[in-house]
Design goal:
Length: 447
């Protein structure tokens, strides 16, 4: 059925008396509702403050990108490109498009397209939804969210270390415990080439334990085999030749500088020679922050250096390094540790018994809000505002500290009655509407 017919049918359905069928969200894609969304905002706020301290600037790129960006950037023989992308054709011109499965490629594309690196490096960060067609489970969704940091145009190990320290500062800020850092070096392409041959020879000797994916990838992209989650293959993966043993002096020195900066900052880490990443674009430093408290979805943040990606997508060569963290996993870990976020506090609830008082009352509320007061206004039911009693009930339920009563008598005198709902014993004061800007601060929480 073409789209036009679908739209037509929907319209017909909505105009008939028959009750429309309930629609629900796409499998693996979540609504983030209050009060849960308050936890998201808190995390995002902490990230913004942190990024400012490290002088990373915000970048926002489109959610839809040309499919070629990911095929070329991430590598054809990767889980994401082979099986996980939401790709479609543009209806009008047939262009191959994809919902972004990650955002490093998009950020690099934007930096190249707008010549962001013309006078040196750029430190950037982003937040937003990503899309991968995976089997939904705890910590693994089809629409999920990443916060990412990318330092483009910097080749030195100090920036790798800066990024790792920055992520660690975020865990500290959030009070996240039980997170450990694993780090490895993937060396340079020539070193990888030597390791590749050794890797193929090793896996060929154990061909009987390789699964279908591994068999297919053995000669296409053997490094990918190290990333396999198949429990039956872990033994051979463990015994495979280590890339670390193939590194030359320069690559080793790079890793050593990263780790000595971490040492000087008292950060603990494990060098994990088996650590590889799911995308082809990485070289030298790669790292993951992992926790044992989220089952098999234990990686909360992952990244590394990708010095060849810019060239690969058509830009001038520029070294770069970055990480991306899974927001859902970080929040799940926080919840696991029982860090609670109190619901957003309301300073005052506006009680308006008669609709005729609304114009003056709402003018007053605007002044209060402009002066920093959080005000929840009672909403009526199409003209009728509801009894005083029912409005007070709502005010109580809202958790507000004060009720602002805009009754007929008050309005006639140009005042509002302010009643304490939480502390004091229902003490009441009367304030001039015209002077709202002056008494506004007396309603605010002392936080
Ligand atoms: P995994 O090995 O768990 O599949 P990945 O290597 O595919 O992760 P990256 O592409 O490096 O993950 O993305 C960085 C982070 O984004 C991950 O460490 C994880 O926290 C998060 N992430 C990745 N895929 C998902 C998903 N489908 N749902 C929720 N979070 C995800
Ligand atoms: Mg994955």
């Amino acid at each position: 059925m073409d789209n036009f017919k679908i739209i037509n049918n929907c319209m017909r359905e909505s105009t008939t008396a028959r009750k429309a069928e309930k629609l629900s969200a796409v499998k693996g894609m979540n609504d983030i509702l209050p009060p849960e969304s308050a936890r998201w905002e808190k995390l995002e706020c902490a990230v913004r403050v942190l990024m400012r301290r490290y002088a990373y600037e915000n970048i926002r790129t489109p959610i839809v990108e040309p499919t070629a960006l990911f095929v070329r950037g991430l590598g054809e023989v990767t889980d994401i490109v082979e099986k996980e992308m939401y790709s479609f054709e543009d209806r009008l011109n047939g262009e191959a498009l994809t919902l972004r499965p990650e955002n490093t490629a998009g950020v690099v594309r934007a930096a190249v397209e707008h010549s962001l690196l013309y006078n040196g490096g750029k430190r950037l960060y982003y937040m937003g939804p990503m899309f991968r067609h995976e089997r939904p489970q705890r910590g693994r969704y089809r629409q999920f969210h990443q916060i990412g940091a990318e330092a483009l145009g910097f080749g030195g190990a100090e920036v790798d270390a800066e990024l790792i320290l920055m992520a660690n500062a975020l865990w500290r800020e959030l009070g996240l415990a039980d997170v450990s850092l694993q780090i490895n070096s993937l060396g340079q392409p020539d070193e990888r080439q030597l390791h590749r041959a050794a890797l193929i020879a090793h896996f060929e000797r154990h061909i009987d334990v390789l699964d279908e994916d591994a068999n297919r990838r053995l000669h296409l992209n053997p490094l990918r085999l190290l990333d396999s989650k198949n429990p039956h293959m872990q033994g051979v993966i463990e015994a495979a030749p280590r890339l670390l043993d193939f590194l030359g002096a320069t690559s080793k020195a790079h890793l050593r500088l990263v780790t000595s900066i971490l040492d000087a900052n008292g950060m603990s880490y494990v060098i994990n020679p088996r650590l590889v990443r799911g995308m082809d674009y990485y070289n030298l430093t790669v790292f993951e922050f992992v926790t044992t408290r989220l089952g098999s979805q234990g990686t909360i943040c992952a990244g590394g250096r990708y010095d060849y990606l810019t060239e690969q997508i058509g830009g001038k060569p520029a070294p770069a390094v970055g990480w991306a963290m899974g927001v859902e996993r970080v929040l799940e870990l926080l919840e696991e540790q029982n860090t609670t976020t109190s619901p957003a506090a309301v300073d005052a609830y506006a009680i308006v018994p008669e609709a005729s008082a609304l114009p003056l009352a709402m003018a007053c509320l605007e002044i209060l809000r402009a002066n920093g007061v959080t005000v929840l206004m009672h909403a009526g039911t199409g003209g009728a505002m509801g009894s005083m009693k029912s409005q007070f009930k709502r005010a109580d339920a809202s958790g507000a500290r004060f009720a602002l009563v805009f009754g007929e008598d008050e309005i006639a005198k140009g005042v509002v009655a302010i009643k304490a709902l939480r502390d004091g014993d229902g003490a009441q004061v009367v304030r001039e509407l015209a002077a709202a800007a002056e008494w506004a601060s007396s309603l605010q929480l002392a936080t």
